[in-house]
Structures are given as C-alpha cells and as structure tokens.
C-alpha cells in the first residue's frame, strides 16, 4: 500500500475503525515499516486525544427555565385564543361584524339598480310597441275610415278623430 | 444521548410538561455541547439549545418515527447550531482572532498533561474555529459524540462518502495547523 493511500485512510476510516479487517492489517503492516506514516498517525492520535479529553458541559439551569416559561406562555396564549374564539363566534352570531352589513348594503344597491334598469327597459319596450301600433294606425287611417276607427288604440286618439 | 422511551415521547407530544422535562434532561447535554462546539460561544449555544427544544416541542406531534428520535434531535441540533453560527458570524465578522487560534493549537508532541482543562477547552474551540461549520459538525459528531459514519450521514442527510471526505479534510486542516505550531517545532 502506498503512503498517500495509507495517510488518506488514516485520516478517516482507519482512525474511526471503519476499515475492513484486511485493510486494517495492511495499514498496520505499512505503519510498522514507514516512519512518515507512523508520524502522521501519531499526530492524528494526539489530535483525537484532545477531543476525547474535552469536558462535557451541562447547559445552565436558566435554559430550561426559559424553555418552560416559553411553553407555559404559549399554552396560556393558546387557551386565551380558544376562549376568545368561542366568544368571537357568539358575538358574530348575535352582532354580525360590519363587513356583513357592507356586503348586504352593496347587494341591496345592486339588486335595486338591476330592478330599476329592468323596469326602465320594460317601459321602453312597451313604448316602442305603442309607437309601432300608432304608425300602424296611421297607415290604416290613410287606407279607409271604417277599418281605421276599429283599429284605434286609445281614447285620446278617438277623441281627436 | 440517553434513550427516551416511547411513552415519554407520547406524553410530551400531548403537551405534558413533566414528560418534556424528562426529554430535555436526556438530550440537553448533547444539544448544548454540539451547539457550543459549533457556535464557539456560550450565549449562542444557550440560544441554540432553547431554539432546538422549542422546535422539538412544536414538531413532536408531527414526528412520524421515519428516523429515530435521536437522529431527529441530532439533525435539528446541527442545523440550528450551523444557522446560529452563521447568524452570529454575520453580526460579528471579526470574531475569529487568527493569531490566538494558531497559538492555542496543541501540536502532535506537546505535553497535554501540562495544559489545564480550561486551556484545553479554549484550544479545542479555537481549533474548531478553523473549520467551516459543515466540517466542524462532522468532526464534533464523530469525535465528541462518537457517532458512526452512517449515523452522521443520516443526521446530516448526506452520503457516507461525503462524511468520509469531510472528516478527512477537517483532520487534514487541523494537521496543517499543528505543523505551523511553534510548540511542535521546539520539541
């Protein structure tokens, strides 16, 4: 095994015990013969010891106190929201919020305008029918009195004739 | 990290504060130490620990046991710590004093016995400051928490080969620093 390959494995799998048994044996044999690789291994082991000796620290008590406080506050807020939610629903049921009135007013106005427009259109149509009936009458008047008299539509026309 | 039984997890997910406290007791040491090593700052580590447990509290209901609880906590911890570190680094761009990092490195042949525990801690933190957060996370999970390559890969959601190469690069970087160390030259 070449030094480059051995040193790569030393920095990962070999140091971490992740090499296969055959590979471990080959590296161990190489280390016995190669001074440079042995030196690298020594450095890596020293580095590892440094990590191993690191003291494990416990988080200060205030960390849990802060977490607990945050959780309790959140729970209270949720409860308040739930209570407020029930109250809100009741209030909305008995006193609907303003947007409902606004919407209802808007709908009323639209319906009113639509009805009004419908009435106007209908009147116009009647007026047009009446006009066309009048011209028909005039036409018939020119044609002969007997027929014309029977074809008169209104009292006022009868009056003038 | 100490194992947590399913019953405690179930109770904690239902909002039982005492069960959640048991969960905190089991995992807080791991969370705090990883956060401390990644952020290199006790105030940031406390903030990260708090964030991690609030995330656990909020998401425990949605934890579907697709991974183990430990792996889930490891993942939340590492991600929160890396984000915390980056946020803090943006806020304090001159936080790393490079000279102190070089001076504090122990070197392969230095006499560790002569170094007090506090000095060791500060040296280790200075050493880790040389690495980017992803490499640091891999090294911390491996060297301090003793996770296997597969566990690290599951935690960080990366291939095992990436774990391998990150560890190799991290150790290489530390070795290079060790070789610059005058203590080693003197020995």
Describe, in short, the structure shown.
The complex is a heterodimer of chains A (about 160) and B (about 190). Chain A has helices at about 5-15, 20-35, 35-50, 60-95, 100-145, 145-150, 155-160. By secondary structure, chain A is mainly α.
Question: Could you walk me through the main structural features you see in this protein, from its secondary elements to its overall organization?
Answer:
The complex is a heterodimer of chains A (161) and B (187). By secondary structure, chain A is mainly α. Chain A contains seven helices and no strands. Chain A is elongated. The mean pLDDT of chain A is 80. Chain B has 187 residues and is mainly α. Classes of the chains: A mainly alpha (161), B mainly alpha (187).
Keywords:
heterodimer, A: 161 residues, mainly alpha, 3 domains, B: 187 residues, Rna Polymerase Sigma Factor, Chain: A, Arc Repressor Mutant, subunit A, 2 domains, globular
Biggest pleated sheet of chain A: none
Overall CATH class of the largest domain in chain B: Mainly Alpha
Low-confidence stretches of chain B: 96-108
- Alpha carbon gyration radius of chain B: 18 Å
- What distance lies between the first and last C-alpha atoms of chain B, to the nearest angstrom? 39 Å
In total, how many domains does the architecture of chain B comprise?
A: 2
How many runs of DSSP E, i.e. beta strands of chain B? 0
- Estimate what percentage of residues of chain A fall within beta strands: under 5%
- CATH architectural grouping of the largest domain in chain B: Orthogonal Bundle
Largest sheet of chain B, in brief, is:
none
Shape of chain A: elongated
* Gyration radius of chain A, in Å: 51 Å
Please bin the fraction of helical residues of chain B: over 70%
Helical amount among residues of chain A, as a percent range? over 70%
The best one-word shape of chain B is globular
Beta-strand content estimate of chain B: under 5%
């Amino acid at each position: 095994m070449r030094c480059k390959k051995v040193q790569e494995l030393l920095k990962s799998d070999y140091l971490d015990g992740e090499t296969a048994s055959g590979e471990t044996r080959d590296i161990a044999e190489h280390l016995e013969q190669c001074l440079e690789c042995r030196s690298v291994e020594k450095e890596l082991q020293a580095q590892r010891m440094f990590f191993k000796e690191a003291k494990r620290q416990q988080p200060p008590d205030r960390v849990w106190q802060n977490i607990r406080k945050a959780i309790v506050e959140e729970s209270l807020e949720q409860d308040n929201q739930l209570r407020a939610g029930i109250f809100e629903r009741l209030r909305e049921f008995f006193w609907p919020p303003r947007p409902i009135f606004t919407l209802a007013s808007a709908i009323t106005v639209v319906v009113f305008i639509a009805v009004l427009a419908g009435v106007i259109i209908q009147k116009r149509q009647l007026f047009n029918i009446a006009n066309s009936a009048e011209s028909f009458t005039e036409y018939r008047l020119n044609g002969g009195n007997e027929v014309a008299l029977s074809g008169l539509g209104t009292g006022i026309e009868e009056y003038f004739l | 990290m100490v194992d947590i039984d399913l019953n405690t997890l179930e109770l904690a997910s239902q909002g039982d504060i005492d069960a959640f406290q048991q969960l905190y007791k089991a995992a807080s040491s791991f969370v705090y130490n990883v956060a401390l090593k990644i952020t290199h700052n006790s105030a940031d580590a406390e903030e990260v620990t708090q964030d991690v447990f609030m995330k656990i509290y909020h998401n425990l209901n949605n934890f579907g046991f697709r991974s183990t609880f430990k792996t889930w906590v490891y993942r939340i911890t590492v991600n929160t710590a890396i984000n915390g570190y980056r946020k803090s680094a943006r806020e304090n761009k001159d936080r790393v004093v490079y000279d102190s990092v070089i001076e504090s490195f122990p070197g392969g042949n230095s006499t560790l016995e002569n170094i007090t525990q506090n000095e060791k801690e500060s040296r280790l933190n200075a050493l880790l400051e040389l690495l980017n957060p992803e490499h640091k996370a891999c090294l911390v999970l491996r060297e301090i928490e003793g996770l296997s390559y597969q566990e690290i890969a599951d935690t960080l959601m990366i291939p095992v080969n990436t774990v391998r190469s990150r560890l190799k690069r991290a150790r290489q970087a530390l070795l290079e620093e060790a070789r610059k160390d005058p203590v080693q030259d003197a020995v």
